[in-house]
Amino acid sequence: MDILTPNHLELARLADGHCHDETQRAVSLLRLGCQAVLVTGTEAPGVESSESVVHTLHAPDGDRQWEWPRLDGVFHGSGCTLASALAARMARGESLAGACEQAQAFTWEALVNGWCPGEDQCLPRRLWRLPTS
């Protein structure tokens, strides 16, 4: 497996139960054979009121973080959008860090241009660049 893209809650469920922080949890997954872990910060405990979201890439050659402005609303499909965009970028042969950065940028734009059909969750508009008429 090349990369996992869990949020903080998923990371805690997947990792060894003896791990106490994000880095230890990510390392436990790397030891199982995963080549990298991109932990998304959207579900990080205690940061719901934060003005930004931090995503962290854990890889054998080191960690890297990206910070994005937190968007208003609750989104459904953001993790799937990120994972799909990341897989597409990696399939094109991009570097891991470059693919992570570009996939996050694509996902953020899809969320900024998202569609909120009712009072609940908003949906990423993945094809937002296409004309609507």
UniProtKB/TrEMBL annotation:
Broadest EC class assigned to this enzyme: transferase
InterPro entries: PM/HMP-P_kinase-1, Ribokinase-like
EC nos: 2.7.1.49
An annotated GO cellular component: cytosol
One GO term (biological process): thiamine diphosphate biosynthetic process
Record keywords, A-Z: Kinase, Transferase
UniProt superkingdom: Bacteria
Domain Pyridoxamine kinase/Phosphomethylpyrimidine kinase positions: 2-119
Single GO MF descriptor: phosphomethylpyrimidine kinase activity
Keyword presence, Nucleotidyltransferase: no
PANTHER family (alphabetical): HYDROXYMETHYLPYRIMIDINE_PHOSPHOMETHYLPYRIMIDINE KINASE THI20-RELATED, PHOSPHOMETHYLPYRIMIDINE KINASE
Protein name: Hydroxymethylpyrimidine/phosphomethylpyrimidine kinase
Natural source organism: Halomonas elongata
